[in-house]
Design a protein that fits this description.
- The protein is an alpha/beta fold and about 260 residues long.
- The protein folds into 2 domains: about 60 residues, no CATH class; about 190 residues, 3-Layer(aba) Sandwich (Rossmann fold), CATH 3.40.50.
- The protein is about 50% helix and about 10% strand.
- Strands 3-4-5-2-6 form a 5-stranded parallel β-sheet. It has a two-stranded antiparallel sheet with strand order 1-7.
- Helix 9 runs parallel beside helix 11.
Length: about 260
């Protein structure tokens, strides 16, 4: 039986003073392990500091993901792979490598409502955050409304620069609603200025022709959408509503009518 190893009050105070107080979370277990496995001093110290580095990396990623506006529940490991949807897994695997960010290329995720477009885009955002990339996620209608509001307090240029500077910009539910002249101009500037300079991920339940029809200025719309699609990986998702499967007490497999491809 291993002897009881205690962490003294003096040691606790010293760790906190050098801002390593969270090492106390794993220190008792590490002390026991070091005794059982007869670790050398440097092996013990290396294991303890590795715990702290891992903890800080995780906390940093969580904070940056929250700042980016990413839903914490939409990570790759939480995807239900039994969902009855179809998509090109070769393309998806390529996107998860994040080589499109290095290129940089864009991503367009298309499909009917509820099949997981937002989930896939957000999961890519989390991967980018964990790899040290700056990310911003925003629903298209919220983004355009916010940019209009910034014109009233003279912060518009600052906000647009932030959108242009971020490594990965995720615009969700693009062209779900009609866009006026101002909105169309905003979309044009964002897409054109980011073209081949930074990656934009866009989700939509509309094909390119329908996107154009939702925008007020045909010339600006054509220029923006053409640039976007010419530089983008396209991931098309189809099948049953993934969102419905997440409702408590509902088994989507018992409701085949939920899989209608004509859902809005």
């Amino acid at each position: 039986m291993s002897p009881q190893l205690t962490v003294t009050a003096d040691l606790k105070a010293l760790l906190r003073r050098v801002k390593l107080g969270r090492c106390l979370d794993t220190l008792p277990e590490r002390l026991t392990l070091a005794h059982q496995q007869k670790l050398t001093h440097h092996e013990f110290l290396e294991a303890l500091l590795a715990d702290e580095v891992t903890r800080r990396d995780v906390q940093s990623a969580l904070l940056r993901a929250k700042t980016a506006g990413l839903d914490a529940s939409m990570t790759l490991d939480r995807w239900d792979d039994t969902a009855k949807i179809t998509y090109d897994r070769t393309i998806w695997n390529e996107l998860c490598s994040l080589r499109f960010v290095e290129a940089p290329n864009d991503v367009v995720v298309l499909g009917p409502v509820g099949v997981g477009k937002t989930f896939f885009a957000t999961a890519l955002g989390h991967i980018a955050v964990r790899r040290g990339r700056s990310v911003h996620f925003e629903r298209a209608d919220v983004l355009l409304k916010r940019l209009k509001a910034t014109r009233l307090d003279n912060s518009h240029d600052t906000e647009v620069r932030k959108l242009l500077r971020v490594d990965v910009l995720i615009i969700d539910d693009f062209a779900l609603r009609p866009m006026d002249q101002i909105d169309t101009g905003e979309v044009y500037e964002i897409i054109v200025e980011r073209h081949r300079r930074a990656s934009t991920i866009l989700t939509s339940n509309r094909d390119p022709g329908e996107m154009l029809a939702q925008m007020a200025d045909p010339l600006l719309a054509q220029s923006a959408i053409d640039r976007l699609h010419s530089n983008a990986h396209e991931l098309v998702i189809d099948g049953e509503s993934y969102r419905r499967r997440q409702r408590p007490g509902i088994d989507a497999t018992d409701h085949p009518e939920a899989s209608s491809p004509h859902r809005r």
